[in-house]
Specification:
Length: 664
């Protein structure tokens, strides 16, 4: 019975329990000690590391973009301004599901495919981590309210203010001022490291025109700031800041009043006007029409709007007609005449008998003189240089050009800016073509033919020039050979801009300085010569003479030109049975300067007018030139020519009115 009912060994159980208790206590102590050691390690030895990481989650360094410099016209009128807008931005690092966030945002505000595509492009650019990237520009008040109400559901989404470019004159200065738009990958890659840093907080860069030419001056220097953000990416505090340096304001020679007048004078016509102040070379007007609204490009133009611009093949609004070349036509005749005088191939007494056509020796082909006289029978008959200019006698210049030869023509005409770009800050302007033997062989692999010289002598064939080049050449005649290179920029922060340009005055000094007066006199006759008896019934058809205005208080020197848009025969153009498309009609040109033949006041304006498919240089482009010189001299400068003429009478050109055989 004793074995069956054995009692427990309480002492043994107690010893086992104590051992287990001691083991548990030791383990707890060791674990606690390890925890204390880890806490000490983290709180003391790793304090700097984790403190920095903590600050990194809430403290951010971000760029502060500089304010872009303003652009003014010569009278202080604002041409390019900065206006505040509110943008929707995203901090990519704070959004886990970007696609879902964009989908939710599209239920709150309008988000187009263009917006999302451009946002993805911005994400791929070099940027600072945790920096905001614009998703959509220009939120209205309702859209801002919807975002604010749902901000708790939109971590990493913020509404940020920004200044963007605004062009008050819109399409009136689209080509001359240009525009800014979002910087692209190619432009970023073209920058060095320092320049990339300076564009860190900037989304925009000058793309065309003055905005591009003077980007370095207008952009400014980027600033920096340290901010504290919450878990939604919203800025809670500004801790430190290095202010940006705003871009410098610039003043242009452009006169906004004349710019408006040029646009109004062109009306519904396609064309261009370039006006220069001869004394300074300042470009006071530069209009290409039709144009476009540059404000569309500032915050990113939509595919639809851009498609409208590029598919309009008739108006070609993105095409700058002021800096692209066309055949200059008869506008080059005063310059070729100067060359003939300078090289003693003609003089004041030299004259030809014009039968209405020209033939090279031994060649049966006739180069016709398509003027009014040719159409009514006969040529210009006895014609000297002045008469050849004011009646635009092609035959005279066919003969002169043939005797000069293309080498002499090229050498002399290049001194007036043909085949070159004399403008200081319109570097994007094309140089046109002043043909030569070497040029034709290099570009076309063909030798030079005598017929090429004949065509070039009246500004046709291989010769091309821009309206900017024609205005430049007109200003050189107005300055009697002094070349003051055209420029847009007048001042930087009200400090006059004086570019250092070598060889600014080519050697166009003539054998006899009186040649300048002689050519100026001939150009004045283009506008002011009275009707001759034999043209009296044809005045409206002969545009150069039809420009006469007996009430003008000043003299205007000019020269018209007509350039073929396509090779259509004159028989077709004059036919009443065949309808020629407006797009195939001749281009109309007119160069001028004023006041001319005035010993009291130097020419104040030189200009070139181009009317696309305008048919008649004097009929379409001439009145525009007259309208603009009136506006500038009489309204803007307010010159009282009547008072001046009372003190110093202007020089009057000698006019020998032609008399027909019937009148004799």
């Amino acid at each position: 019975m004793a074995g069956k009912w054995q009692l427990k060994d309480h002492e043994a159980e107690q010893r086992l329990f104590n051992r287990r208790l001691i083991t548990a206590a030791v383990l707890i102590f060791l674990f606690f000690a390890a925890l204390v050691v880890q806490l000490v390690y983290l709180q003391i030895y790793q304090f700097d590391y984790f403190s920095a990481r903590s600050d990194g989650n809430r403290l951010h360094s971000q760029y502060v973009p500089p304010a872009r410099g303003l652009i003014f016209d010569r009278n202080g009128e604002l041409l390019a301004d900065n206006q505040p807008i509110f943008n929707l931005t995203i901090v990519r690092e704070q959004i886990e599901d970007l696609e879902g966030t964009l989908e939710y945002l599209s239920t709150l505000i309008r988000l187009s495919e263009d917006d999302i595509e451009q946002f993805n492009t911005r994400l791929q650019r070099n940027r600072v981590p945790f920096s905001s990237v614009p998703l959509r520009y220009v939120l209205n008040d309702e859209e801002k309210s919807r975002i604010a109400v749902n901000s708790h559901l939109l971590p990493g989404i913020a509404i940020e203010p920004q200044f963007v470019r605004q062009y008050p004159l819109a399409d009136l200065t689209a080509h001359s001022l240009g525009y800014v738009s979002e910087i692209n990958r190619e432009e970023l890659d073209s920058l060095n490291d320092e320049e990339k840093e300076n564009y860190g907080g900037t989304n925009h860069i000058g793309k065309t025109g003055i905005e591009r030419t003077y980007e370095d001056i207008l952009h400014g220097t980027v600033g920096y700031e340290i901010v504290e953000k919450n878990n939604r990416g919203q800025v809670m505090r500004y801790l430190d800041r290095t202010d940006p340096v705003a871009g410098k304001n610039i003043t242009l020679h452009m006169d906004a009043q004349l710019q408006r007048a040029a646009e109004e004078a062109l009306g519904e016509l396609r064309g261009a006007v370039v006006a220069i102040e001869p004394a300074t070379g300042g470009i006071i007007a530069m209009v290409s029409k039709p144009a476009f609204d540059p404000n569309l490009f500032v915050t990113g133009i939509s595919s639809k709007d851009y498609g409208v611009l590029v598919t309009d093949e008739v108006n070609t609004r993105l095409f700058d007609r002021t800096t692209n070349p066309y055949p200059p036509g008869s506008t080059i005749k005063p310059f070729l005449g100067l060359g003939g005088l300078h090289h003693e191939l003609v003089d004041y007494e030299f004259a030809i008998h014009d039968p209405g056509y020209f033939r090279l020796p031994g060649v049966s082909y006739r180069w016709g003189d398509w003027t009014l006289r040719t159409r009514i029978g006969g040529g210009h008959e006895h014609t000297d240089l002045q008469k050849a200019i004011f009646q635009s006698c092609n035959t005279f210049f066919f003969d002169l050009g043939n005797r000069m030869g293309i080498d002499t023509i090229h050498s002399f005409m290049s001194q007036f800016g043909f085949g070159d770009n004399f403008a200081v800050d319109v570097s994007y302007a094309r140089t046109g073509v002043l043909p030569s033997r070497e040029w034709k062989m290099a570009s076309r692999g063909e030798p030079w033919y005598p017929g090429d010289t004949i065509n070039s002598s009246i500004g046709q064939g291989l010769m091309w020039a821009t309206p900017l080049q024609l205005a430049t050449a007109a200003s050189i005649i107005a300055n009697k050979g002094e070349v003051i290179q055209p420029r847009m920029l007048k001042a930087i922060e009200e400090q006059p801009f004086e570019p250092l340009v070598e060889n600014a005055v080519p050697d166009v000094m003539l054998n006899d300085p009186d040649y300048w007066r002689y050519i100026e006199e001939a150009m004045t006759m283009v506008v002011h010569r009275p009707y001759s008896t034999e043209f009296r019934d044809y005045g409206s058809a002969y545009p150069e003479i039809a420009q006469k205005d007996p009430d003008m208080s000043y003299m205007l020197a000019g020269k018209s030109g007509t350039a073929q848009a396509v090779g259509i025969s004159q028989d077709v153009l004059s036919s009443t049975d065949i309808v020629v498309s407006d797009l195939n009609k001749d281009h109309a040109l007119f160069i001028a300067f004023a006041p001319a033949m005035n010993s009291h006041i130097a020419p104040q304006i030189a200009l070139a007018v181009f009317v696309e498919n305008g048919e008649s240089g004097g009929g379409a482009a001439g009145p525009i030139a007259k309208q603009l010189t009136d506006k500038y001299l009489l309204d803007i400068l307010q010159i009282d020519f009547e008072a001046l003429n009372e003190v110093v009478p202007p020089e009057q050109p000698e006019v020998n009115v032609l008399v027909s055989e019937a009148d004799e």
